Amino acid sequence: MLPDLKLVIRLQEVDHRLSELTREIAALPKHVAEIETKLVSHERKLEADRAALTANQKDRKRCESEIQAQEQKISKLKDQMLGAKTNDQYRAFQSEIEFCEKEIRKFEDRILELMGESEGLDRNVKAAEEALKIEKAQVEGEKKEARERTAADEASAAELNKERASIVASISPGAYQKYERVRKTRTRNGLAVAEAIEGRCSACNIALRLQFFQDLKKGVELMSCESCHRILYYNPPVSAEDLAGETARAR
User: To bridge 107 with a disulfide, which of 63, 129, 159, 238 should be the other Cys (CB 3.0-4.6 Å)?
Assistant: First the structure.
């Protein structure tokens, strides 16, 4: 195989891996932002539940204060009723006492409602606090993992960029220009090199002319697919005899 062809094949492998690393490095901060946004929404929901529980408790205290005030009012009215001089005055005091008692029952009913609501709110707050504690630990773990993965990816990318620079320095300018021209074409999706398999370009799947395929097999020059213009290479099939020979040499 031509030296330039070996180099462009490896160059494509390097570029493909660099593209993967670049996408992964860019995706990790987005993933962290997503899980942090989700965490914030859960924190806000917990705060809303806590606020509702606090409001419930305040409302209960208000109702209890109202009951106490009405009971004090009834006590005063009963004392005043003892000094009533007419039946009309007595009935007026009695009517006011009945109104106060009705108000007390109303506040007592409201307290019962609030107690029923507070049980559910209290359960929600406790469950949310426990779930949030676990989620925070998970988020911190994922953030740490993302930072470590990013550092590893950046280190790998740095090594690959060094290798790429070495390849580019070794390859002939014409071969490199051809590779870059094809790689940067949008319709090629970064794929500039393809294998010829069974007389077809493995990238575009178009059958190669017989003479073209024969010339490609000879490997005397850098050749491109006449359809998609990708640089083509041919790997001859390995025979059973060759495999047996390799095994024997390994032994």
Answer: 63
